[in-house]
Amino acid sequence: MDELYQKYVAGRPGQEAALENARLCGSIAHEIHDLRTSAGLTQKELAARVGTSHSVISRLEASDYDGYSLRLLQRISVALDRKLDVRFLPRSSPRRKSA
User: Fold this and answer.
1) How would residue 16 be classed by pLDDT, with cut points 50, 70 and 90?
2) Distances from the Cα of 12 to the Cαs of 23, 79, 94, 96, in angstroms?
3) CA distances from 66 to 18, 34, 48, 51 (A)
4) For residue 29, which of 53, 50, 58, 60 has the smallest C-alpha distance?
């Protein structure tokens, strides 16, 4: 895997940003799915609690979806009796600062 990263991503800011975005979106989708299933809810049931459609929940749980809104994530957190925590963290590999 490291070999692929070095060959296709490392040193390419656009590719690095795309990979970081894909990882973030995949993580959000996975967490929504896990929380929903842990609560014993179907997508349709969660959608009813959130006040949206089944198809919206389905999209949110797709790892390639990248249209998350903070407002919708907040509504999901309330529906699942969770607290939403959005944080800015330091990067694992520092980016070069532009002059």
Assistant:
1) confident
2) 17, 40, 14, 12
3) 11, 18, 22, 20
4) 60
Distance (Å, rounded) from C-alpha 40 to C-alpha 67?
Answer: 25
pTM of the model: 0.81
Q: So what's the pLDDT on residue 19? A: 76
Tell me the C-alpha distance between 42 and 28, whole Å. 17
Structure tokens at 75: 């509504």
- Helix H, strand E, coil C: the string for 24-58 is HHHHHHHHHHHHHHHCCCCHHHHHHHHCCCHHHHH
